[in-house]
Amino acid sequence: MRPAFLLALLLVGASGSALAAEFIVHPVQLSDEKAVFATVESRNVVPARARIGGTVVELTVHEGDAVKQGQIIAVVSDPKLPLQIQSLDAQFQGAQSRLAQAQLDLSRAQSLARTGAGSQATFDAAATAARVAQSGLNSLQSQRDVARAQLAEAAVLAPADGRVLDVPVINGSVLLPGDAVAIVAERDYQLRLSVPERHAQLLHGGDVVRIDGEEFGQKVPSFGKIALIYPQIQDGRVRVDAAAAGMGDYFVGERIRVWISAGSRAGFVIPQGFVTTKFGVDYVRLRTAADRVIDIPVQRGQAALRPDLADGLEILSGLADGQTLVSP
Fold first, then answer.
1. Among 127, 261, 280, 305, which is least packed by CB within 10 angstroms?
2. pTM score of the predicted model
3. How many domains does the chain have?
4. Do 68 and 123 share a domain, yes or no?
5. 140 Cβ partners below 8 Å, 6+ apart?
6. Helices and strands: H and E segment counts in the chain
């Protein structure tokens, strides 16, 4: 069985003449491509949420801005938190004083008990009071740490690298804990295809899809691969996800045209540079068995753009297997 694509470039020359490139024609398997529309989507669209309740006092992003994970996109202020911290600071100082007094009483009771001037019950009561004061101080310390952590959570952080799709709040908006401040689309974009079910049977994971370069201002197409075929048919169509490089500048939700494989057939593909057009007729130069070079007419097909031959052109008629073409 012949390989799928055989390309032979031979350098043939004569004394005093320039070298000429040749191409040996062999049939290859071509994909019958079908144009479908795909939607650019983010793999993950996540909200950046407020961790505390309060009022938005600073908003640093707008729709369309690019953000990095951990970047501060807003600041929420709750005036009760500083007051709560002040109250806890005052209680903490009082608890420190009570602990110092309890430790002093324990030291005195211990000295009296050692000399026999004080009872064991007095010593036990002083020891218990010291432990209670220490526990109260530890509890207030924990409460103060929690309040300070809440104050530090006033900054709303971007959950991932990506682009801001929506900012549903403004400066002065009142938020509850968990309210969304911004919606962030993760930068890793993908294509979501909607394929008719009669063509979905021919698709497989890893198949190449061709993306129209004109959709994003490029003269040459780009290629992607099918990453996931959803096992459910809805309204006679199957959802397919395809991964492609260079999708970061698209709008999320933008529709672009892509081509998918809808079967295969045998055909001839040659580089476009071997075809010349004269008076509206396409010709190729053919080397005959007698080592003569003649021009023969061919019928041009569509561009067979493939990752392994970017300038391929399908020839519908005029060529046969094994013929040798000479570049113009």
1. 280
2. 0.53
3. 3
4. no
5. 88, 91, 92, 95
6. 3, 21
